[in-house]
Amino acid sequence: MADTPKNKKKILAVASIGGHWIQLLRIIAGLASDYDVSYVSSNPKWAESVKGKFYAICEFSRWDAWKMLICVPYVLMILKKEKPDVVLSTGAAPGLLVLLLAKYVFRKKTIWVDSIANVAKLSACGRYAVKLGVDHVYSQWEHLATDKVKFAGNVLGKLGDAE
Amino acid sequence: MIFYTIGTQAPFDRFIKMIDEVAPALQEEVIVQTLKGAYVPQNVKVVEFLTPKEFNELFAKARLIVAHAGMGTIISALCQDKPIVVFPRRRELKEHRSNHQIATADKLKELGYLYVVESAEQLKTLLLTSELKPLCHIGPIASSSLIDAVRQDIESL
Hints:
The complex is a heterodimer.
Chain A: E1 10-14, H1 19-28, E2 36-41, E3 54-56, H2 68-82, E4 86-89, H3 93-104, E5 109-113, H4 124-131, E6 136-139, E7 149-151, H5 159-162
Parallel strand pairs in A: 1-2, 1-4, 2-3, 4-5, 5-6, 6-7
Helix pairs in contact in A: 2-3
Chain B: E1 2-5, H1 13-22, E2 30-33, E3 45-47, H2 52-61, E4 64-68, H3 71-79, E5 84-87, H4 100-110, E6 115-116, H5 120-129, H6 144-155
Parallel strand pairs in B: 1-2, 1-4, 2-3, 4-5, 5-6
Helix pairs in contact in B: 1-5
């Protein structure tokens, strides 16, 4: 992307490294030409896999959730600086934190796409995303869709279109 | 070359010990990606943390991928037309926070996307006696229906 016109809406795309990140990029691949995208992940070396602006925040999970406190000030700074119109995350826990701060501190629109790895039920973070009012929550499995959880296909680009 | 990987999140000693056991019987180089602090195998070449670029380079060179049932590795294999064998992490052995890898592996096996093994014995049999093929190919991008739905959410600001 050579230019990023001012009228393009801005997405802050957030995912931990590994499968969450790969899934995020497969969604962004279909949006990048129409939006201005900045990225947040959990390891600075992952900056090499994208063209946009990139931030690394600390990784934490339900097993060490206290670490989230360390992340909060930096996440607030990123949101303040980037001023995204919408924040999109494919997980895991740090992604949910960014969504919640974006929604409740900065009043931004938030989207959670639960990892395709969660076949049997929504991830714990995905269930929190629903409970805590993330604006749009997706499962990548049709049988997990409810009135609050949408299904519209998946990151493989195969199953979802076929069904 | 067989690329054997546990992903970026947590050690997986049970899986690494498996290849250490099986490798001497194989007539092929095995490169094992593990994590610092995990069990160090004796019979195979080991690499630790890999950046996406380094990971992709090893991936591209491999004939076959053997991995934990992590979606990052599975998606990479399907994208690059590599046959992939997975061995799911188990919650009760503290290998992951939930048993979702078992569910993922079962479902993707049912859909005909990959091979699943449950023991060193099964892995050995599969590697020694079967001609493994890439079972499914996917493109570089998510379902257009998912992208359109997300786009609609963004536009409905």
